[in-house]
Design brief:
Structural class of chain B: mainly alpha
Distance between the termini of chain A: 49 Å
Radius of gyration of chain B: 24 Å
Structural class of chain A: alpha/beta
Largest sheet of chain A: 6 strands, mixed
Number of strands of chain A: 19
Largest sheet of chain B: none
Distance between the termini of chain B: 10 Å
Strand order of the largest sheet of chain A: 6-7-8-3-9-10
Shape of chain A: globular
Helix content of chain A: 25-40%
Number of strands of chain B: 0
CATH architecture of one domain in chain B: Orthogonal Bundle
CATH superfamily of one domain in chain A: P-loop containing nucleotide triphosphate hydrolases
Strand content of chain A: 15-25%
Order of helices and strands of chain B: HHHHHHHHHHHHH
CATH superfamily of one domain in chain B: MetI-like
Number of helices of chain A: 21
Oligomer: heterodimer
CATH topology of one domain in chain A: Rossmann fold
Radius of gyration of chain A: 25 Å
Largest interface: A-B, 43 and 33 residues
CATH class of one domain in chain B: Mainly Alpha
Shape of chain B: globular
CATH topology of one domain in chain B: MetI-like fold
Chain lengths: 565, 330
């Protein structure tokens, strides 16, 4: 990046030279024999292997794969934005809108990006400059203020004039992503590269953004490269789907064909591991990790299906009429934000309950109050400590909750000491808990910073279960994970619950995950519980309008199957 | 934004009150008896008691404090034991010289620091040489820099003067030579003052410039890794546009707070440098005052330096709010 950043070239506004010619039928992107090597931590690895791929004019290509499959690297290669730090070595041939990307000058790549490409990244919060008004950020791509306002309106932002001077942190996640989209469509690009554009969004917002993308695509007649780990998302928007695994293209074809009759084993695995609203709850989720970690829950292990706990069952969580307001200082002085309003929830001993809702619904606040990390303004929350140790939490980023310089045995020991377990039991407890999460004893000497992502999650779970807690509180533990990593974690959680007999409270924005993991589902909206009931009941026969909206917003493969038939 | 500034100013007033109160306590409980210091060792008891009563030293402590505060508001910092004239008059003569030196030093430190940081983005050899020069300079103690500077630029090369603020005598209305000379249209005087300023200002600037440069460089590097920088590149902006519009502003917040903190180190350096270059500023005044146990003078200098430090850091807080809209609500 260093030299490139300091070259003082002068002409960013050169007229478009590579705008796709509507009459020509040459593909917008033509890749053949592409190989990309990157150097990370001193190791040079081939990240993309002999890749051949075309994107036709006006086509939406879904690029699907696990994290680490190389799909994002491909997107960055097309833009010429692979970080210099990882010293990319690119061979083969890549042509984007008529520009040969390999060996192109910095200036011609810049012109390509300015005139022919639009980009949407995953997290609109971090992808927008926090100290620049959104208007100015769109202006940089649009050229004139009038055009910037038109683009903001085109991206579905109401009152663009008043929003023009807003900073990113003053907008909701959905609006921020619309700002990204407004920038991406500036100058009518021939190709939009969307890298996981909906992954960081709530389901209802994801639905809106997908609709918007589809609409803009047909208005602008551009091509779209949709990079996503979610086959459901890819299926909703793509004409063709390309499946990548470990840097190779394993399968490509019409979206409906790929989804309904996949040929490659990897695609089938990817489809099977997708948790849908019809997944069989009584069996472990299928996990096909081609990356190396073996499945840890035998596929014939059976999980108990829902049994209504008796009315007089002892409660492990009892929350009555809890309210919580936060004071937030905004533009017009102090405001109060009602995070929870008069919420009551009881969880029976051994029961598993999921709280679902969108961001801002109050689900995490409720969990934090139950965990004792937050105090309620009104009402009573109590956790029974009759049995087991204090409650344990599993966080979204389990890796970050392990102290990096401690070894695994030190991490596990720490809790045993805290819970006053006699030291004679240490060795046995440690080996038991490792076995429970499918790790071998050799891992004990490893520092947590050297663990892989999957191992970290398991160590975090082993730590939580080494002294069985009265209740395990989980805050979105699967939302940052790939489908099969999520499946592995869910299987482990369900196994832990079965073996150890603890209750579980699971906060998630994903209804399909909630249905699989929980006996009962609690739906929250704007700080209130709007619906509560048996998991399948909530999903297949929702009563509340808001719940219906949530269920309807989930991208589902049935959509593509209908298209195919 | 106005509300944010008002809140910052309010906390500024409170901190200043705490500072004056601490100074007042120090003064009250210091082993030096102000009455004896003024009248001398041989004064008789009646004269001592009379002056004590006249100075209000028999009043309750809180009354004394309010008198002290009221005095401060009217610019009354007491009478110097040494010069027998109001401390405020002494300060009027010495503070502008130190301020001029300090501000010039800070400007140079920031400019050198920013250049230092920006050169780390490039791999060119001459720029690395520049960084090595700053590193070496910052490793040397200020007094050594001063002495070496005098030997090299005054004695050997004869490029720069070795002492004083100016070759001319007398002063204008503000006592800031650069400003006075501009007001008087005195071009030769202006450049003469700059000529005198360069070496001492450079001496106090080099240390802080390295600190600023280092922090700014690491801040720049981490800012370059942010997603929004990639977004800016994806728009097709040029390298200098990306750095100029998206990187520098976001990278400068930690540097600003550092500049505020470095002001302290800077003035400490100024006190040393003034002695080397016979710069008629607070440093010279203070070494005299300490030698003579001139408590009102010492306390006034402490107040001025402390208040200056607090004011600069309040200004830094406000500037950070200007730079980063997310901080304005706090």
């Amino acid at each position: 990046m260093s030299e490139k950043l300091l070259d003082l070239d002068t002409a960013p506004h050169t007229p478009p030279q590579h705008r796709a010619d509507p009459t020509s039928s040459s593909p917008v992107v033509a890749i053949s024999g592409l190989e990309v090597k990157l150097t990370r931590n001193g190791k040079t690895e081939t990240v993309l292997h002999s890749l051949d791929l075309d994107i036709q004019k006006g086509e939406v290509l879904g690029l699907v794969g696990q994290s680490g499959s190389g799909k994002s690297v491909l997107g960055l290669t097309l833009m010429g934005l692979l970080p210099d730090r990882s010293r990319p070595e690119i061979t083969g041939s890549v042509s984007v809108c008529g520009t040969s990307v390999i060996g192109a000058s910095a200036r011609s790549m810049r012109n390509l990006r300015r005139n022919s490409l639009g980009v949407i990244f995953q997290d609109p919060m971090t992808s927008l400059n926090p100290t620049m008004t959104i208007g100015h950020q769109v202006l940089e791509a649009a050229g004139t203020k009038a055009e910037a306002l038109r683009l903001l309106a085109l991206a579905g932002i109401s009152n663009p004039e008043t929003r023009y001077d807003a900073f990113p942190h003053q907008l909701s996640g959905g609006l921020r992503q619309r700002v990204m989209i407004a920038m991406a469509v500036a100058g009518s690009p021939a190709l939009i590269i969307a890298d996981e554009p909906t992954t960081a969004l709530d389901v209802t917002v994801q639905r809106q953004v997908l609709d918007l993308l589809r609409e803009l695509k047909s208005q602008l007649h551009c091509s779209v490269l949709m990079v996503t780990h979610d086959l459901g998302v890819a299926g909703e928007i793509s004409d063709r789907i390309a499946v990548m695994s470990a840097g190779r293209l394993v399968e490509i074809g019409p979206a409906a064909t790929i989804l309904s009759s996949p040929k490659h084993e990897y695609t089938r695995a990817l489809l099977a591991s997708r948790i849908s609203l019809d997944t069989d709850k009584s069996l472990p989720l299928p996990t096909f990790n081609l990356g190396g970690d073996e499945p840890t829950v035998a596929s014939d292990e059976v999980f108990d299906t829902f049994v209504q706990p008796p009315v007089d069952a002892p409660l492990s969580v009892d929350v009555t009429n809890v309210s919580k307001t936060f004071s937030v200082r905004g533009k017009k002085g102090a405001n109060t934000l009602r995070a929870l309003h008069d919420v009551s929830l009881a969880i029976a001993d051994g029961e598993s309950v999921a709280i679902v809702g969108e961001s801002g619904s109050g689900k995490s606040t409720l969990l934090r109050i139950i965990a004792g990390l937050e105090t309620a303004d009104a009402g009573v929350g109590s956790i029974s400590r009759m049995k087991g140790s204090r409650p344990q939490m599993v966080f979204q980023d389990a890796g970050a909750s392990l102290t990096p310089w401690l070894r695994v045995d030190e991490i596990l020991r720490e809790r045993l000491v805290l819970e006053n377990v006699p030291s004679s039991e240490f060795a046995e407890r440690i080996s038991e808990s490792l076995a429970l999460v499918g790790l071998g004893p050799e891992i004990l000497r490893v520092h947590s910073r050297d663990l892989s992502g999957g191992q970290r999650q398991r160590v975090a779970l082993a730590r939580a279960a080494i002294v069985p807690p009265s209740i395990l509180l989980c805050d979105e533990p699967t939302s940052a994970l790939d489908a099969w990593m999520a499946a592995t974690v869910i299987n482990l959680l369900r196994r832990l619950r079965k073996r150890v007999g603890m209750s579980m409270l699971f906060v998630t924005h994903d209804l399909s995950v909630a249905r699989v993991i929980a006996d009962r589902i609690v739906v929250m909206n704007k700080g209130e519980i709007v619906e509560i009931g048996e998991a399948n009941q909530i999903i297949h026969n929702p009563q509340n309008e808001y719940t219906k909206k949530l269920v309807a917003a989930i991208p589902d493969l049935t959509f593509a199957e209908e298209l195919a038939s | 934004m106005l509300k944010f500034i008002a809140r910052r100013l309010l906390s500024l007033v409170i901190i200043l009150l705490v500072l004056t109160f601490l100074l007042f306590l120090m003064q009250t409980y210091s082993p030096i008896d102000p009455v004896r210091a003024i009248l001398g060792e041989k004064a008789n008891a009646a004269a001592l008691a009379a002056l004590r009563a006249k100075m209000g030293l028999d009043d309750p402590l809180y009354v004394q404090y309010f008198h002290y505060l009221g005095g401060l508001l009217h610019g009354d910092l007491g009478v110097s034991y040494r010069s027998r004239q109001p401390v405020i008059d002494d300060l009027k003569a010495f503070v502008p010289a130190t301020l001029e030196l300090g501000i010039a030093g800070m400007v140079i430190a920031v400019i050198l620091g920013v250049i230092f940081a920006l050169t780390t983005l490039s791999r060119s050899k001459p720029l690395a040489l520049f960084r090595g020069f700053i590193l070496t300079g910052a490793a040397a103690p200020t007094f050594l820099l001063g002495v070496l500077g005098v030997i090299l630029f005054y004695k050997t090369l004869g490029w720069l003067p070795a002492s004083g603020r100016s070759s001319e005598s007398g002063h204008g209305p503000t006592r800031f030579l650069l400003i006075d000379d501009i007001l008087a249209g005195n071009i030769t005087g202006f450049f003469d003052a700059i000529h005198h300023l360069i070496l001492p200002a450079l001496c106090i600037a080099i240390g802080p410039s390295l600190v600023i440069g280092r922090v700014f460089a690491s801040s720049l590097r981490s800012t370059l890794d942010y997603d929004y920088v990639r977004t800016a590149q994806a728009k097709g902006l040029t390298g200098s546009q990306v750095v100029g519009r998206h990187v520098i502003r976001n990278a400068s917040s930690p540097v600003l707070s550092l500049v505020g903190l470095q002001i302290g180190a800077m003035f400490a350096g100024a006190l040393v440098v003034e002695n080397i270059f016979s710069w008629p500023g607070l440093g010279l005044y203070m070494s005299g005052a300490i030698g003579a146990s001139d408590f009102p003078a010492i306390s006034a200098i402490t107040l001025i330096l402390g208040a200056g430090y607090i004011l600069v850091n309040a200004a830094v807080d406000i500037l950070q709010g200007v730079i980063d809209p997310r901080l304005r609500v706090a």
